[in-house]
Every structure is written in structure tokens, then in C-alpha cells.
Write a structure and sequence with these properties.
This protein is an alpha+beta fold and 209 residues long. It contains three helices and six strands. It has a six-stranded antiparallel sheet. The longest helix is centred in the N-terminal third of the chain and has 46 residues.
């Protein structure tokens, strides 16, 4: 076989061919893994909802995406309405994202029908390694900054003690603590706002999932 001459044209042809083949392989891999990844994400969310609501035998009766403008910035939330096996409402699990020290911090928070925090889990974090894990435990029932069981009120949001509140911040990580509590407060505002709209008949930018 004649050796391909080392000319600029031939090198360009080879590079283009390699790029096309690589792109095709990546597209195929993406298509093949898209389904399993989506299923895994759905299962992770389903398990998370059970965790934050504190009930394993439940049904998600509706999932709605809502956008609220808070402080001049639009935030998107996903509210999963939850009922027990008898169809009785248990409250809702709300996905909420806000900016942390290292990037986005996404949490899933469970709220009861009496507006109390039932539980939470951190779905995504770009914080400094270790801080994300601390946030996942620090504010739990047995954590130093526990918020579990706290009755929420939009007029009195959760704040760290350093800012005049009564929630202990993660040691040496006040910024992450503030971001976490902001995500929880905004999740509750979306949850409470949806209930207020339902009672008043007001319309809001809500999309069924």
C-alpha cells in the first residue's frame, strides 16, 4: 500500500476524518446512555422524595415546575405534591437551586401540611470538597444546625445566628450555610405560594411535569 504523502491537504483530510469519526462515536455513546441516565435520575429523585417526606409508601400526585422572581432574579422550582396510600395529602417535596460558594447548590426539601420541614437532601453541590457532605448532615435532625421540624414562615425565614437568626452555621463555612438556608427558604416560598394561589384562584407561571 502506498504511503500517504505528508502534505498539508492530506493532514487536513486525516484530521477531519478523525473528528467526524470521534463525533459519531460520542453521539452514539450519548444516545445509548441517555435512557439509563434518565432512569437513574428518576430513581434517585423518587428515593429522595421518600427520604425527605419520611414515608416510604407514598404517591406523587402531581409535579409542577414554577418560576418565581426573587430579588430581581428568576428561580425555577419543581413542586412534587405527595399523598399517602389512602390519598391523604402529606405536603410536598420541592426542588430548589441557589448559588453557593463554589457554584450551584440544589436541594430537595419536604414540607408537611402544617408547613413544617420534614426532611431534606442535597441533590447537587459544587462546594469545596467536604462542605457539600457537611451540608447534607449538619442541618439534619441530629445535626448541630438542625432545621427538621421547624415551622416555616415566609415573614421569618431561616437564617444563621451570625445574621441574627437561630440556626447554627456549618463550622468555618458560613457562606455555604447561608446558601443552603436560602435554598430552603425559597423552596418553602414556592410551596406556600402555590397553596396561596390555589386558595385565591390566582394564576402563576406553573408548568406540569
Amino acid at each position: 500500500m502506498k504511503k500517504l504523502e505528508s502534505t498539508l491537504t492530506n493532514m487536513v483530510i486525516v484530521l477531519v476524518a478523525v473528528a467526524v469519526i470521534t463525533g459519531g462515536v460520542l453521539a452514539w455513546v450519548n444516545e445509548e446512555t441517555k435512557g439509563p441516565i434518565a432512569q437513574q435520575n428518576e430513581q434517585t429523585l423518587a428515593d429522595g422524595i421518600k427520604t425527605v417526606m419520611g414515608v416510604t409508601d407514598l404517591t406523587v400526585t402531581a409535579s409542577q415546575e414554577t418560576t418565581s422572581n426573587i430579588g430581581g432574579k428568576d428561580y425555577t422550582f419543581v413542586i412534587h405534591q405527595v399523598a399517602d396510600k389512602n390519598g391523604r395529602s402529606l405536603g410536598a417535596a420541592v426542588e430548589s437551586t441557589t448559588g453557593g460558594f463554589g457554584g450551584d447548590l440544589k436541594v430537595l426539601v419536604g414540607f408537611g401540611t402544617n408547613h413544617e420541614v420534614l426532611g431534606y437532601t442535597v441533590l447537587q453541590t459544587a462546594e469545596t470538597p467536604g462542605l457539600g457532605a457537611k451540608a447534607g448532615k449538619w442541618f439534619q435532625k441530629d445535626g448541630k444546625g438542625s432545621i427538621i421540624g421547624r415551622k416555616m414562615d415566609t415573614a421569618r425565614p431561616l437564617t444563621v445566628s451570625k445574621d441574627g437568626g437561630d440556626v447554627d452555621a456549618i463550622t468555618a463555612s458560613t457562606i455555604t450555610s447561608r446558601a443552603f438556608l436560602k435554598a430552603v427558604n425559597q423552596a418553602y416560598a414556592a410551596y406556600a405560594g402555590q397553596h396561596a394561589d390555589a386558595q385565591s384562584g390566582a394564576s402563576k407561571q406553573i408548568k406540569d411535569k
